[in-house]
Structures are given as structure tokens and as C-alpha cells.
Amino acid sequence: MMTPVRRVAQAGRVLGHRPVRDYLWMTAGILLTAWGLDSFLIPNKIAAGGVSGLATVIYYLAKARGVYLPVGVQMLVMNVVLLAIAMRTGRGWRYAAKTIYGIVGLSVAVDVLARFVPHLASDDLLLAALYGGVLTGVGLGMVFKAGGNTGGTDLIAQMLARKVSLGVGQLMLLADAVVTVVAGIVFGWQYALYAVVAIFVSGQTVDIVLEGLGTEKAAFIISDEIERVGDAITGELGRGATALAATGVYTGQPRGMIFVVVTRKELDDLKALVGAIDPTALVIISDVHEAIGEGFKQMRI
User: Quick check: 265 pLDDT over 90?
Assistant: First the structure.
């Protein structure tokens, strides 16, 4: 059996290797995000919110006047002030370092990859919005999962959230909406509508990367045969369950309740099992974004 001292030492070794893994993960995410921008969004004038969207608008306005303003350089300039904000977030130097790496890395990657990657889906804006949204969503999700940041509207939102009554998510949505409206005025409202599609797809993809596909289900079971239901769950399904004390509000009588987490494939077996024991049972089922522990994912340091 591992002693507490050995467990702490082992945790220290794992944490010691984590920065390398995090920066590799961030680098891969930055390259995917830049690929999505350079191949699908920027060449098709889809300004999907944030600093990159605003830089896309300015890029085409300048291009129409014979001036070349690289999108990546614009993103870096726009984020210069945010670099100082990252240093003052109070979240430690590691977070600030990752934020600086994300901001500079994405800005450089966007301009460098633009010379090599092909422009795709130029004849189908919907495909461009969908694929661009997925790629940028996966890339940003990887950066966020590694504890990093790419600057832009999320840092602005974090700063403003302390001064206004709106939440970070609402402020980010508002900032993206402003950029989308500007893009609609400059490029036309059709492009703005496709930008909304890209923003939605990217946001959903980020959630999937951070939280997983949610293949598990949580069930609350209220029944007068709760002991038999519990025995069946542990015996036939092989799942652990937790008994909870409950009281009927109308009757004031104690009721039995069980909480259990199962996989999606086990859900039908659970419902059939409960129905066979107590057809009058109340079964409440909800999605689980991630389940960590015995029988599911392992807990990682």
C-alpha cells in the first residue's frame, strides 16, 4: 500500500511533467485554430466574432484600399493591452505565461499557415462555417483544457464582469454580436448569418472538448420498493448506487430514493429493471457531462 509520503512524491512527479504536456496540447490547439481560420473562415469573409473576426473585417477593408494588414499581426496588436490584463488577473504567473503563449502563438500561426494551407469551401459558405467552426472549436477547446487562453473577447469579458452585472458568457456573446453586426455591415448580412453559424458550432465544439460527449446518464429513482431496486442495480447491472433520504411533500411520508449513474447502453436495462420491480416508480433521467471514478474514467492529477 502506498504511503502518504509516496503518494505526494508521485503527485509531484506527475505535476512536474504537466507543463510540457500542457504546452504541447496548446500548440496543437493553436495550429488547429489557425488552420480553421486560414482555410475556411478568413478567405470566405466569415468573421466569427472575437479579435480574429474584427481583424478579418479590417483586413478586407484595408485590402480594398490596396493596403496589406495581416490578420495575425492585427490580432497581436489588439491583444497587446490584454497581455497586461493577463498579468493582473490574479491567477498566477503560470496562467499569465500560458495566456501570453496562446496570444502570440495564435497570431504567428495564423500568418505563417496562411502561406501554406489551401482555401477550402470557397463555393459553399455553409460548409466553410461548419468546418471552420469545428476546427476552431476543437483547437480552442484544447487550449482551454490545458489551462491556456488565446486572448480576445474572453479576457475582456473577465475584466468587465467585475464592473457590470452581466456574466462572462453574456459579455462574450455581446462582444461577438457586435463584431458580427460590423461584419454584416461591411460584407453583407448573408456573411453575418454564416458567422453566427460558425460561432454556434465553435462554442458547442469547445464544450464537447472540455466536457466530453456525455455518454453517461444520471437517474434518480423514487419507489416504495427501493431496497429491491437497489439490490437489482448492484446485482444485475453491476453498478454502485447511493440511497438518499426523501420525504413526500404532499403526504409528509418518508420515501425511498436511489441515485445511480449508468452508461447510455445500460439505460434501457435500468428502466426495464425498475419497471419490472415497481411499475409506479418515478424515474428522473438527466445527462452527465463527465463521470470520474470507479466504473468510469480514472481520476487524473
Answer: no
Number of domains present in the structure of the chain = 2
In a domain, 29, yes or no: yes
On average, the pLDDT of the chain sits at 80
For 59-116, write each residue's pLDDT tens digit: 999 988 888 989 888 888 888 766 666 555 555 667 778 888 888 899 999 999 988 8
One domain, residues 65 and 153: yes
- Using the predicted structure, report yes or no on whether residue 12 has a pLDDT greater than 70: no
- d(CA 90, CA 37) in angstroms, rounded, equals 31
Tell which of 211, 228, 244 closes a domain.
211
> Domain residues for 239?
216-288
Mean pLDDT of 254-273: 86
pLDDT at position 10 is 38
- CA 13, 15, 16, 19 torsion-angle sign: positive
Rounded (5°) CA angle 80-83-89: 150
HSE (CB half, 13 Å, CA atoms) of 278?
17
Distance CA 14, CA 134 (A): 31
> How many percent of the chain have pLDDT more than 90?
20
pLDDT confidence of residue 295: 60
